[in-house]
Amino acid sequence: MxxxxxxxxxxxxxxxxxxxxxxxxxxPRRLQPAHRPVPxxxxxARRRPITHCAQPITSGAEMIRALGLQKAREMIxxxxxxxxxxxxxxxxxxxxxGGAVALPKGTGAAPGAGAVGKFPVPTLDPTTIPKxxxxxxxxxxxxxxxxxxxxxxxxxxxxxxxxxxxxxxPTLPSTTLWGYGSLGDNSTFNYPSFTIEAKTDRPxxxxxxxxxxxxxxxxxxxxxxxxxxxxxxxxPGGNAGRDSRPTFTxxxxxxxxxxxIVTHLHGGHSTEESDGYTEAWYLPRANNIPPGFATVxxxxxxxxxxxxxxxxxxxxxxxxxxxxxxxxxxxTLWFHDHTLGLTRLNVYAGPAGFYLLRGGECDLPKGxxxxxxxxxxxAPGTRYHEIPLAVQDxxxxxxxxxxxxxxxxxxxxxxxxYIPTTDVSPIWNPEFFANTMVVNGRTWPKxxxxxxxxxxxxxxxxxxxxxxxxxxxxxxxxxxxxxxxFWQIGNEGGFLPAPVRLERLLLANAERxxxxxxxxxxxxxxxxxxxxxxxxxxxxxGEPGVAFPVADPATTGQxxxxxxxxxxxxxxxxxxxxxxxxxxxxxxSASVTRRLSLTEANSSSPLVPPGTPVQNLLGTLDAAxxxxxxxxxxxxxxxxxxxxxxxxxxxNFTVDAHPIHIxxxxxxxxxxxxxxxxxxxxxxxERGFKDTVIAYPGEITRVKARFxxxxxxxxxxxIVEHEDNEMMRPYxxxxxxxxxx
Length: 741
Description:
By secondary structure, this protein is mainly beta. Helix content is 6%, strand content 30%. Strand 1 (3-5) and strand 2 form a beta hairpin.
């Protein structure tokens, strides 16, 4: 029988079960060991029978139905992925699509006609980056705008700008990034953003400004290579062609700018015009926007008018103003860019930050949990015992610039032909796993802690990497023994029904975990390490080191270091095992059950190796239970009645786990059910409410939500490479729109 992780036993024992729901249960596939004499390394790409993109049934789905999940697992070969980087002094040669290339800092270069289009990118060997020499940066609080508290609303003016920051240790070059900051204070621009502190039932109004312009007011090019063959914002298409998948007569080079943005408050209970809808983007107010370019997305004007009608404020060009009612449970939220077809690149460039909602009946009284957290106006040197931790993976070039693939060849070695000769996009990679771990904008930082309790708010901000976090006394020993447990008290939707003791945290992309870590009694001078036992590849499930190779212990298997210092403050917080968490009001019964599908489409071209993935898709199921794959532009199929409570069944026909995020709602995880098995209750850390859930391969994941804001929203996979290439769908609450786009 397979082994499954049991979170109920503090000694980290394992329960034997055929149908256990944990992500540490049986793996959907067996992998060959990674061979990485020097990174980067390309393992064998997944090869499957050719399937047509328009076909509603993928080969993986057919195999699961015909053979059963376990047999399909054995027969479906895993694709390979590449961990970016190269040995010190070496160069990584990457091809440019159609002879046009994007240089590391976003400038364009076009070799002569007929040129191969390859150029050297010197990448930074992650093993040469010193670890634990830089102190962890604890994000300060974002300052409010002047006169911000008029009418009982906290107001902010926050822009996205380009700047240089020391992400790598000081002995190495700085990195050009994008990030949020208060337009009234240049010192607040940072990666990740300063934190927005909000109070339950007190509105927050933010004017989000696209300030990606230079000192002369000209638009800045993108830092990374943008693939214009996806279904994306497409400003060059003009108003008629925006938010579309363009057609080409020859393989295009990368789009470099101007760059559209739109900010989404992830986990917010938002109205449609303030949700950061992916087609409500806007360009900077630059003085050199090319003639004929669309300057806003398809929904921008409609939402601008709606916001004006509701709040008496019309958005200025290059901006959007959103208002958040904060009428939800105290919780850990975050904000990030959400532009159609560009999310993976815009967020990788830096724009993201925490939004912490406090107060109300669903919070704990002051002093019950470790504190303080950062507050506006804190004196320098203030010690914090509540700390948000944004964990991300990044790769770098030797000049300190960000590395992200500029060609599809990076993923699986397929060097073309690309669109339009085949259906393979020239730049987009199905997933990307970087080679360096970054916490709060610093590579492998260290934090001195007192021997007392700390409240840590974890966010998995990676593009594609699932994290399995553990606190160990060795940075490299695998398997690692837990040295200090986590007490998880909350997730995306606020506090759990009761604290849960865990030896490790499984966090999918965009998931959050609110935990208490108790360093009480640990001797001064002790060094402890936050390590990652997730994989350097797509996650399915299974025991680390058994079902899949753990992350490289020398690089991506290490996250940060804790050094226990002297006790200098009194800890009056309640021990986690004695905490009584706020009561949770469960949702009522559902009136509708929707059957939804998750699939992967492979290339249909005879010029492309069989099994080459070209899209990930959401959709529905037909009467026989077969997936009906739908693209972003297909008609809306999810249309809950206003104030209806519905159950959504996520049928995963792929061999990967997908973190599914539904905008506007906080949902309950009802259960999971293998395709040929019985329902399994949710994990203890998934109780209460969530906004992102792991849909495991070969299973039905059921969630239940109440849809109480009318309008247009989206649901999608939060592996952002998937999201950017069709694994996102619009949904409509409260009937049809007066007009569609």
